[in-house]
Amino acid sequence: MSAVLFFIAAIGALAGAIAVVTLRNPFYCVLALVCHLIALAALFLLLRAEFVAAAQVVVYAGAVMVLYVFVVAYVGGGEEYATGAALRVLGPLFAVGLAVELCIAMLGSALSGISGKGAPYVLGFGTPAQIGKLFLTDYLFPFEAASLLLLVAAVGAVVLARRRRGLEDPELERRLALTPRSVYTGTMAEGGGVPRAIHEIEEATAPVIVQEPAMPTTANKA
Amino acid sequence: MAIGWYLTVSALIFCIGAGGVLTRRNPLVILLCLELMLNAANLALVAFARMWGSEAGQIFALIVMVVAACEVTVGLGLIVAISRRNLPIDVDELHELSG
Asked: Which pTM does this prediction carry?
């Protein structure tokens, strides 16, 4: 049973990986990667890593891939430029060579543990309780460093992707600057409400002469 | 299943990802291929954790996932900044830093 599940998940993971590399449309690449990640989570489950599998599905296939889909939709990324002729031949050759070398290194090695099924299973292996205990005892420093890294990455992403200049359309910016605005725009009076501001101005100017307050369509004060 | 099978799958996924990084030119897809390579390493780590019967490998896999998430955030922020400036989304055109 586990062998059947392993082959289904492994073929799914490999097919997803090949689809990521070969599909032209970046959107389909992201969807293929989601399939790949879910198949990989099944492999993790077969390896008795329950918490890692759950985190893989929730964090990776859920959150990170949603971020990818957002960016692909924002950027558009429709057209794909053709690769140079040299890399188009050398890239796959390199990959195949690396695969052959890695397979020789692993399957040809005399390590006895590789051909076995692994250590005997003890109850509670890979559960969240066990992982959490390890994170807060033996691996506390990597845990804290990872949280700091996440914070730095979040701040860095905001800094990188923020809008640097004004509006993207200079013509629109010029027209907006020329648009007549209320004199209260951008002042505290706007927050307090224009009628109240008019009332305050009336009160302030009442002893001088009874007059209407300035019409709020004159040139901008800001 | 023997641990060797998992390691073989991991090696194949890693090589597919490496080939994709070399052949594709869209930085979005290159980031996806980097994810493939990181996931292959994760699979190997979890397989070794199963082999030794200790959870240390799973801890490493979780840390790798955190690092991958950070890499994705910064990389996607860069891509958004590139597209804001109306530069081509193509790694071969963005060679200002290569001297």
From this structure: 0.78
